[in-house]
Amino acid sequence: MAAMMSVCRNFGKVGLHSRLILGNPCLAALSKKNIIFYENKIVPVSQNALHSVKNFTVGPKALAETASCKSADDHTKLWTLERGLALALVPLVPAAFLFPSAAMDYLLAISFTLHAHWGLETIVVDYMRPKVVGPALAKLGVAVVYGISVFTLGGLFYFNYSDVGIVNAIKMFWKL
Asked: CA-to-CA distance for 16 and 13, rounded, in angstroms?
């Protein structure tokens, strides 16, 4: 704990490249071994050593150990996609009202459902961890999120196909 507090105090002094590496979940295993990297050398964690850290960097050995960790790379790509979709929704929603069409309704349905799915999945994965609720209940929670997402997308597609569509329904609701 003291090691983490010291690293957090010095985090503002770390370069951006090192911050991205330190955010890598693959380095979590190294912190359990009570070692840090100081000027590209492995240093055992101690109170005196951590308080004197000025230029905290991650050495090449840590980079080599993280190269085999593929799950962190997958989560990084997913996080980037999530942020990209959220950013794309900003102009997409007004554009759907300015240029209403079936294509825009379907694009909104896919975008809203995907955005909600990723948000719900993150909540379930964060709060229904296998260590807390057990592996079966954690998998069930994720399966329920997938079921809700499929049901939502199917419902929105059905509404777009057989009724007025998302944008026209909102416009009709506003007229009330």
From this structure: 9
